[in-house]
Design goal:
single chain; 167 residues; alpha+beta; Arc Repressor Mutant, subunit A; 2 domains; 3-stranded mixed beta sheet; 7 strands; 46% helix
Length: 167
């Protein structure tokens, strides 16, 4: 999902977005229907990943959670990140990437408009959530190695079609 589409969604929710200089370790912050994005982030793709997580805080978090020593705050941080993974990389998009012939995590990340790191973290999240595989419609998504399979009927016979997307 492009940065502009996420900005539009935020605006529809009444959320203000500002880009401003921040410490390099701080990519973004959310509080009181305001999102700040680190102006030092060089690519729009990385900004999209950061904005998605900050939108995740709008949808999933409550209160002041900056103190990450508190387990409750860490849980809310993870919840927002998981929301971002599912927003930017839904299972349907992993299937579409495979069916369209995108091979290798670099090409998949580029096609999905996310960073390779965000893609990897989302795959790890899905693997923790579902195990080594899950299904979406009539597809089976394997997380290690990353691949997609389906059963098709042709002329009265069934055949398995596999799309290997990991290199």
């Amino acid at each position: 999902m492009a940065y502009d589409a996420l900005v539009k969604e935020a605006m529809q929710q009444g959320i203000d977005i500002y880009e401003m200089p921040m410490k390099p370790r701080t990519k973004g912050l959310y509080a009181d229907k305001t999102i700040w994005i680190n102006k030092g982030i060089e690519t729009e793709v990385e900004k999209s990943c950061v904005l998605a997580e900050e939108l995740g805080h709008y949808y999933t978090s409550q209160g002041h959670i900056l103190d990450q020593q508190d387990i409750r705050n860490r849980k809310q941080e993870l919840k927002a990140r998981h929301w971002a993974y599912e927003k930017l990389i839904p299972l349907s998009q992993l299937v579409n990437a495979a069916v369209l012939g995108n091979v290798g995590r670099h090409l998949i990340a580029e096609w999905l408009n996310v960073t390779e790191s965000f893609l990897q973290q989302s795959i790890e999240y899905y693997q923790r959530k579902y195990g080594i595989f899950t299904t979406w419609k009539n597809y089976i998504i394997f997380f290690e190695p990353l691949s997609v399979s389906t059963i098709r009927e042709r002329l009265g016979t069934k055949e398995e079609v596999s799309y290997s997307i990991d290199q």
